[in-house]
């Protein structure tokens, strides 16, 4: 009976040690999950910002280029004069 009780106490000590290690891993994993959620949100923000900027460039870019060319021609910057 003493041998059984000794084995059970060793088993319980090992189980408590394993439980503590599992709780540490759970805590670290929760932090990593929060970090990945934050990164995903940031990536979504930058993706949306890039889409908006791309639309602005596609729509307003030719007008800005035309205005810059007219301004340059009006100020004596003809093509090929450098």
Q: Could you explain the architecture of this structure?
A:
The protein has one domain (1-82). It has one helix and no strands. It has one helix spanning 2-74. The relative contact order is 0.04. The chain is rod-shaped, with a radius of gyration of 33 Å.
Please give the structural blueprint:
Layout: H1 2-74
Could you name the key traits of this structure?
82 residues; mainly alpha; 89% helix
Overall tally of structural domains: 1
Which structural class matches the secondary elements?
Answer: mainly alpha
- The separation of the N and C termini measures 101 Å
Principal-axes shape call? rod-shaped
The residue fraction in helices comes out at over 70%
Tell me the β content.
under 5%
- Biggest sheet character: none
Number of helical regions:
1
pLDDT averaged over residues:
88
Radius of gyration equals 33 Å
Low-confidence stretches: none
Number of strands: 0
What is the succession of H and E elements?
H
A few lines on this structure:
It is built from one helix and no strands.
